[in-house]
Amino acid sequence: MIRRFLALVFIASFIPLAGCASRSQRVALRQCSFTPLRTEKLGVENDSLRIRLWLEIRNPGPEVAILDSFHAQVSAQSPLATLSHGGTTRILPGKADTVQILLSAQNANLFALAATLLFSPPDSLVVEGHAWIPGFFGTSQRPFRWSTPYSSVAPRLQGMLGGH
User: Fold this and answer.
1) Phi, psi at residue 102, to the nearest 5°?
2) CB distance 136 to 15 below 8 Å
3) φ and ψ at 26, to 5 degrees?
4) Within 13 A of 77's CA, how many CA atoms are on the CB side?
5) Cα–Cα distance between 125 and 140 in angstroms, integer?
6) Backbone angle region of 89, left / alpha / beta, with phi > 0 → left and psi within -120 to 50 → alpha
7) 39's torsion region: left (phi>0), alpha (psi -120 to 50) or beta?
8) Distance CA 34, CA 161 (A)
9) What ranges do the domains of the chain cover?
10) Under a CB-based contact definition with an 8 Å cutoff, are residues 153 and 36 in contact?
């Protein structure tokens, strides 16, 4: 009985440490750079254009960075599109990996979206949503919010939209 109790205490003492390593690997994603590589039109569903986006994630840091499953909304002054990613991707230190992101935009807003991004771009883009993070006791849902200057992604986006 005492051995079982001590074994349980021993295992329980390592659970928070595993969580810290896992958390730091997800925080390491903030150091990464993101480059849109190409797109593929998937079609129209429920009055929304669906596009697969290949996104390169480069990890310059000393620690593995983790991208989890997520669903998010991209906005500037107003909502622009939704993004989703399934699965967990590990980006090794000093390496890059390419992930596929599903982008969905309302058909009614496509012309306005393209015109805004090409001719009167916002200062920044905000990505806000929820990630599903696997853990020792199952998967938990965590909110996130990330902002990036539009200028850091503008050249690639404008190239994909047929601009400069």
Assistant:
1) -90, 120
2) yes
3) -75, -35
4) 8
5) 26
6) beta
7) beta
8) 18
9) 2-161
10) yes
Query: Would you give the distance in Å from CA 121 to the centre of its chain?
Result: 21
* Residue 155 burial (CB count, 10 A): 13
Closest to 101 measured CA to CA, from 45, 52, 146 = 52
Q: What is the CA radius of gyration of the chain?
A: 19
Query: Distances in Å between the alpha carbon of 85 and those of 54, 55, 94?
Result: 11, 11, 23
Place of tokens 């990505």: 127
- Tell me how far apart the alpha carbons of residues 59 and 27 are, in angstroms, rounded to a whole number: 12
DSSP state, 77?
A: S
Please state, as a whole number, how many other Cβ atoms lie within 10 Å of the Cβ of residue 25: 17
Sequential pLDDT tens for the chain (164 residues): 555 444 444 444 333 334 445 778 888 888 888 888 888 888 888 788 898 988 899 999 999 999 999 999 988 878 888 999 998 899 999 999 999 999 888 877 777 777 777 787 888 888 899 988 887 777 788 888 888 888 877 776 666 655 44
| C-alpha torsion sign, points 156, 157, 163, 164 | negative
